[in-house]
Amino acid sequence: MVTQNAQTYPGERLGLPREGAGSIGRLGRRVGALFIDYGAAYLVSGFFAWDPLAILAIFALIQVAFLPTLQGSPGHRLFGLRLLRLDGAWVGLWRPVVRTLLLVVVIPAVIWDADQRGLHDKAAGTVLVRG
């Protein structure tokens, strides 16, 4: 039985389009962006003898520095993704910090809702969309 509240695609109840610009960023793009950002952190950490904590710290720094300035990390931008507040406004400064802290914990990032938003995005009031 289908209820009236059922959505037919991720992001519909958020008012986002089914596909194209402004639609929910899908798993393939998100994972690709993660590999780019983590890979960059890994390469930069080579200056610090590839310490795992240095890699994680550099990854977090990349996120916090680029999310408010470019509307996404370098990986997000390369894969055509943008981070926005739910109302479409600038994410500000605190949202990237909260989102990143939860992202490096990993678990909140792998628990998604029907709109394919991780708990880290829900806590920060953000959504990752195609640019």
Instruction: Count all strands and give the number.
Output: 2
**Cα-to-Cα separation, first versus last residue:** 35 Å
Give the low-pLDDT segments: none
Helix content: 40-55%
Strand order of the largest sheet: 1-2
Structural class: mainly alpha
Order of helices and strands: HHHEHHHE
Fraction in beta strands? 5-15%
Largest β sheet strand count, sense and barrel closure:
2 strands, antiparallel
Mean pLDDT across the residues is: 92
Overall morphology: elongated
Radius of gyration: 15 Å
Transmembrane segments: 47-67, 88-112
Protein name: RDD family protein
Subcellular location: Cell membrane
Pfam family, one: RDD
Topology of this protein?
Elements: H1 27-45, H2 52-70, H3 74-78, E1 81-85, H4 94-105, H5 107-110, H6 119-124, E2 126-130
Antiparallel strand pairs: 1-2
Helix pairs in contact: 1-2, 2-4
Subcellular location: Cell membrane
Transmembrane segments: 47-67, 88-112
Main location: membrane
